[in-house]
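Deviation from plan, reported transparently: D-glutamic acid complex.
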Amino acid sequence: MIKGVDNKQPIGIFDSGIGGLTVANAINQILPNEQLIYFGDTAHLPYGDKSAESIKHYSERITDFLLAQDCKMVIIACNTASSVAFKNVVERTKGKAIAVNVIDPVAEYVATKFNDDKVGVIGTKGTINSRIYVRKIQSLNKSIKVTSLATPLLAPMVEEGYYNNYISQTIIDSYLSKKSLDRINALILACTHYPLIKPEVEKYYQNRVSIIDSAEIVANYVKMKLKGKMAVSSRRRLKHRFYVSDFTGSFEKSTKIFFKNKLHLDEARIWD
Ligand code: DGL
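Because the crystal trials were delayed, the predicted structure below was used instead.
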């Protein structure tokens, strides 16, 4: 419990763009009374092929923005930023807010649910090159073999609205047929854009593989973390706020894909 934190304070969530809205949406479903403040760093999208140093710098500055909005929790709703900048966000939020990443809840879930299994991970180059899933899962359960594959085309493809059609299915099939994912029992969708392509991934595997989508797992983890005095008690929720660092109409239009409703985006030019 962090001293002085009021339970009505909002939950801050950030991502490189609007993919993290899949996590925001899951939190909104599970914790409907909580106010959310979302920040999508569209000025720097994508994070997947940026250097760790740049992502750390962006994450620190965005965390400061969310803390200035009085957030009681800062959730990194991006696997790429979670894999390289979590320590920086923990440092920044110390004594002020709880820091959450999207990798630990999934690693814990996988480590308890599977045994002697081969688990695949797909994500951006940044996430996969960090080997964070391999390290975290194997430190929790040595019997699990973790194999990973960078799938850099998938996030921009979804962001452009290409999913659930023959072009996206062809790209997905081509990645999933790579040798490194041979004979897996489960596949972690290690990018917050990927819940949208879950039906296509399921179609490829025809129920032979468990598909793990982090949004719901992270939302349950957040609920557990806020238990007691940190959770909002009143039913009169304040309005959610959604910010991007570089506004375009097409981002606003795409919010519907990720959050189920079209949202109003405000521009916060934190980089000027
Ligand atoms: N949503 C980000 C993630 O979870 C990927 C998009 C990007 O490359 O910025 O890794």
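The chain has a mean pLDDT of 93. We consider this an acceptable substitute for the interim report.
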